[in-house]
Amino acid sequence: MADERVIQSTESPLNKTFADKFYFIFELPEALKNLKTDKSIIKAGLGVNKKALQWSIIKAEVPNINIKANAINYGGGSLHVSSHTKSPYDPFKITFKIDSNWLNYFTVYEWVNFIYGEKEGHFDEDNLTKSKNFDSYAVPVSIVGMDEYNNPKIQWIFTYAFPTDISGINLDYTSTEEIEFTVTFVFSQMYIRNILYDNIKNTSGV
Q1: Left, alpha or beta for 102 (phi > 0: left; psi -120 to 50: alpha)?
Q2: Cα 31–chain centre separation
């Protein structure tokens, strides 16, 4: 059964020939869930209050994982041992096609505008929240890979993520291509979940 709490983008993720599909799933920071403006998150009767959002994505750059190794002089060479420390993750980028109501673009815009307002140039200039901590704008987000039958297979989970950059948009009436935009996110930790294995494990009781 589909999760009724999830709002999908108005574009049709099935209207393409590629076998593999990827979704971006996240829940807005609490302060933005009740945001009422006629220009962004509330569009065409689609509210986001207490709901997760699911958008199909064109491409994403999942960051590399790097655990540093230390070299120890040993005899005439070097012995490498693990430092047991992980290098900071690079930001990751996701490219979306703008949906027919510009819902995905405006949603990310309001998120960024909450962090640094366009009117007065400071955080939460509309006083949407009493909390001024980073967890008022940083939330877990995930990328889910689907198979050709729309069954989820793998999930990348990013903790305390928030957008830092929205790409420019090329408005060209002569172009036959759909409008795209790219969002850059930073985050704290990344977890990878093998959904198929987890389902088998839960079913078998292992």
Answers
A1: left
A2: 18
